[in-house]
Fold this protein.
Amino acid sequence: MRKISNFADLKLTILYNVRAKSAFQNNSSTMRTHKLFALAAMLTVGTIANAQYLSLKHKRYDGKWGTESMTMSNKPNGNSYRLREEVRITDLPRPEGTDGLQLFISEKIGIGYQAFYRIPTASPNYDKFMLALHDNDKQLVQVLDLLQIAGESCGEVVDVRHDGETNCIYFNVTGLGMKDHEAEASRIYCYSLDKARLLWKSETFTSNDIIVVDGDYVFSSYGGSFVKDYVFMLDKRSGKRFAQMLTRTAVENMEVKHVAGKAMLYAVDYNNTLYIYDIHTTGTAPAVKTKK
């Protein structure tokens, strides 16, 4: 079968198949082959038309951003800190089983409130990360053991987000402290509150900083010393990777901005370089390079 990489190849493939049918119209086997070619062509058109991806629009180096800016809404404690620490609500009842844990995130969400408790950062063992969910009256509804949901005995949960559309909890578990589990490190997990089960987990080495859920997508970054640094765009319903963009150094903050009806991803790396990506929901996507 001819390889179809763009619309020009597609036209040539269709022309090739029409000629083949004309020359061998009495050959039933060839006609069946022609139908398969036509089906492949239609599937290719659908794939091209429904592509979802990121494209780099601008890059502003080393803090020289001009008029561009970040609101810090997704990481108010600052770019250089690897964790999101954001305690907005201080009067939520503390659930049992969180003694000795630090309240790290508390905020209003679509179904009420969430409170994220974690082992202190100075602890030698990262083995307990709990998420408490409260209703709109601040009454405790349930408590989730995030490492247990992820199927890990240790690791570090860096960020936790709730999405009102799917009623899912999105969180990541990085490799810090995982020791023998390093090969399974730095995934994003999607847990359905409606179904009370894990729906999906991403590929390894997809997230070791904050995560952002916006529209149909989850945005994340992975990087650090002696590894390549990337920004990722995933399908929030399946975890499928739509984009993987290489950056100069590890990205430490991200947010989605909506300008004139267009969604753009802003990302800042360790060297204070700002990347601005167009978020494409349709169009012809470039090939996604496989991680090495």
Observations:
- Residues 217 and 235 are 5 Å apart (CA to CA).
- The helical segments are 7-23, 28-49, 146-150.
- Residues 28-49 form the longest helix (22 residues).
